[in-house]
Amino acid sequence: MSHNHDLMSEWVRTNKLQLYKLGYVFIDQEEALEDVVHKIMKLYQDTTDFLEEEFKQKFVKECMSKSGRATKLQEDLWRDLSPSSVQSLYFCYVLGLTLSETASYLSQTEESVEESIISGFQRLLGDADVPVQKLLNYHQGLLDFTEYKRINQLIVEDQQYSQALEKLLAIIDQFEKINRTLSPSSFFLEGNRPLTDAQLNKRKRKQQIFTITASLFFIMILFVSSVGVAEIQHKWKVWTTEQVAYGESVFVSAVDQGIEITVTHVAADETQTIVYYQVRDLEDQYHYNMDIYHANAVEVLEQTVFSEFWSPYGRPKSFYRVLDEDQTSEGMLFLPPLKGESERITLRFHTVEQYAKGLDWFGTHDSNDHRQINGEWLLEFPITKYESMVVDIDRTIQVKDKDVYFSHLVVSPTVTLLAYKFDFEKNGRYEYHDIYMSVEANGKKYLPFFDHRSHNDYRNGDWDRIFPVESIFYLKPKELELAIDRIHSTYDYDKEITINYDKLPMEFQFLDNIVTIDNIDIGNPTTITLLEEFDLDRSYDHFHMNFDHDSQTHNFGYGYYSEGIWIDGEGNKYHTYEELVEIQNPFEIQYISTKQIISLNFPGKEIDKSQLPEKILISSYSKSQKLNERLKVNLH
């Protein structure tokens, strides 16, 4: 009984913050939450078994039963939402729990939780006339490719969709900010201190024995195999700390459930902390999903060492959609910035998501293709925070007859930020240009890096834009070369095309290309197909369409999607989405449309040609061009 009570007390002490967040949506008074914690602990005083998940379930249900008034969170942000929508949104989008976990805590079905979420977002969007479920699935990457293209085209062409998506992302960002900033007083967290060294050693003893034994065995094999001194020295680096390209090398491993997790490098600055790690199974049969959204997947035991509070989240280290057989699953875990200059932290992974090798992770969502592996992987390692450096560039170059002014580089341990200005057209015509770059230094190419938290300019100077690339901080090169690889431009345009539905196919001239309105398939929805001649040198990659609604007597909904050819930086052509699985840098790809399909929807009506739109309006077009501009920057 005493052993069970000690185990429970230790778990409560180390999970006080998690319990606070689980109960906050129902009760926002710390004293009342403390009372609930003690009440649930008393329920276990006469039992011999303590289950962590059962404790949390009882805690949430007790908080729910004592929820007698609207919390400050609901009064300030969600006063117009129903309690079920507030609770479902909070658990799924503030705490990052899954639908099934949320349904279990709220004693509802997953369908009911999903309905409450959609209803809540609909109200928060001001009851906009857009399919909220589709936008959520689009944002989360849960659509098949055909549907993704359709929604993407709607967002590009329909302002209502684009504004709804922008507002939806702002709302989700607000939810994540709530989770990062939600923290009780030090009084409530008094018992929530990190485990002692003795407790950690006890927890990690099995893993350490396995890791040390395996390492010694491996070193013996190296000697017996006469691999050579250089190779042995390389392997011996796992016991030391040194600086490498991505961060400081630590190489700490833990094994459970036949799966090894290794922290390889760490990087920290004033904006964030990044932990680079690998996951592999000891039998080398599986790969692992490195996307981490849920707070229960991994935790940091030492919460007090950070200057902010937010849940860890993770991304794959590369853009590869399919890993080769011999590739290892590599990821980046993003944590808050450290309070001090140097700390030791302990990560505890609870679950990993395993899937078969050769699977296109972004192209499939079949639950049979992957499974959750539960375990406990404890990894303790040091992290040192370093200050960012600012390097002046103060150079202007010509890019396709446009002046591009490069102001400076912000070189930080987690990201390199390039501040620059782009010269706009001054004749009143709307144009928008942007460039994609990489950095080359000491023989290594650093790719665009969009998984960073901060776009702050550390100089507070006047700049228009920044472009982020992977950090060069730890490499400390004497000079680097900015490789300006591609310019992407969008141009305002105004062209009307009157459609003669009785004389299809019909052709019209668009810039230097012939476009054919090929056929129409009348139904509900009705589709109109446009064919374009492929030409790598044509004046546009794809154009953006709309309809002349003022001349219409019938209301209809519409959307677009296209088919085309992708071209990489070396000129290789890809005709299907599936062919792109091995592209490492998606920012180098040019997409040229060859077919555009318009889908018209007339709810509850029989359709004939008289109800179809008379004109297509082309409002703008885009063009992407490969560049070969180079700019050398001396870093000293």
What does this structure look like?
The protein is an alpha+beta fold. It has four domains: 180 residues, no CATH class; 162 residues, Immunoglobulin-like, CATH 2.60.40; 106 residues, Sandwich (Immunoglobulin-like), CATH 2.60.40.1640; 136 residues, no CATH class. The chain is 27% helix and 34% strand. It has a six-stranded antiparallel β-sheet with strand order 1-2-3-4-8-7. The protein has a six-stranded antiparallel β-sheet with strand order 18-19-20-24-22-23. Helix 6 packs across helix 7, helix 7 packs across helix 8 and helix 10 packs across helix 11. The radius of gyration is 28 Å and the shape is globular. About 9% of the residues have low confidence. Keywords: Membrane, Transmembrane, Transmembrane helix.
